[in-house]
Amino acid sequence: MRICLPFLSLVVSTAAMAAAPEDAINETRLRADVERMVGFGTRHTLSTQTDPERGIGAARNWAEAEFRKTSAACGGCLDVVLPERMIAGDRVPVPTRLVNVVAIQRGTERPKEVVIVQGHIDSRVSQILDATSDAPGANDDASGVALVMEAARVLSQLKYPATIIYAALSGEEQGLLGGKLLADYAAEQGWTVKAVLNNDIVGGSRGSDGYRDDKHVRVLSEGLRADATDALRAQMRRFGGENDSPSRNIARWIGGLAAEDAKGLAVRQIWRADRMGRGGDQLPFSDKGFPAIRFSVAVEDYEHQHQDLRIENGVKFGDTIDEMDFP
Q1: What topology does CATH give the domain 4-323?
Q2: I want to staple 168 with a disulfide (CB 3.0 to 4.6 A). Which of 11, 83, 88, 101 is the partner?
Q3: DSSP assignment of 222-267
Q4: Is 33 in contact with 149 (CB distance < 8 Å)?
Q5: Of 29, 98, 110, 35, nearest to 70 (Cα)?
């Protein structure tokens, strides 16, 4: 069964726009990263930011330390930055400090052109405002952050003409707040964003009904551009082009990469900005006109996503590490 490693190879090759150094990707490190994030108990955005062992603050500090270790191993090739803002709203009833953990591997020729590889580090249980109960968030989305960390370790050993951004985002579960923060930061930096690769729920292969698919990865992309003007929408109606958004072209290009890798996963194109009625941190980038797609598992397991840890009628609920597919 192949989920994390070939899937990560696809993301690595997309970010690098070159053949993926697949043998450099280490399953043991991926598992250790997820175990460490689960070990923080909860990573809810509203959880403690001062406890050194539990909560979102401890998780962010760990992610920052990992990026700095990776940078030290490549001679200081990563600039680690911590964009932040104060937030409040329906899912944030008390003003809260929101912080993203971002590592920048600057390009040698076109440093303003960037590819963003990201996942969200926050987690949740059934009640969206429950910031104290254990919320392991193993697949959603420690898996995505582990992928980001491993991509940084592998790609930082090489040099590229354009810049690669590695990001562990906070506040996704409270309304895509970390994605909005990084999208705003990208615009403020004057970056030309070539692609945003959002990795959210990427470490499993079995659905709630037991059906297993370890041969595909879903790639979700918007059709009609979120930033389209009335004039552009009229042109698309007249001439066609509703299937030609920058995000959808990125998705098709990724499908071509996958087709060339017999050992990896096949891409299942999902012609939506995200799952029906759901959202991910790629959407704030699409809202700004940046090409952005979402990677996710072929089938989702809703009993182990956004759930309190419990057993009901013999059914185990909760996003725990034993439900993941590391090979």
Answers
A1: Aminopeptidase (3.40.630)
A2: 101
A3: -SS-TT--HHHHHHHHHH--TT--HHHHHHHHHHHHHHT-TTSPEE
A4: yes
A5: 29
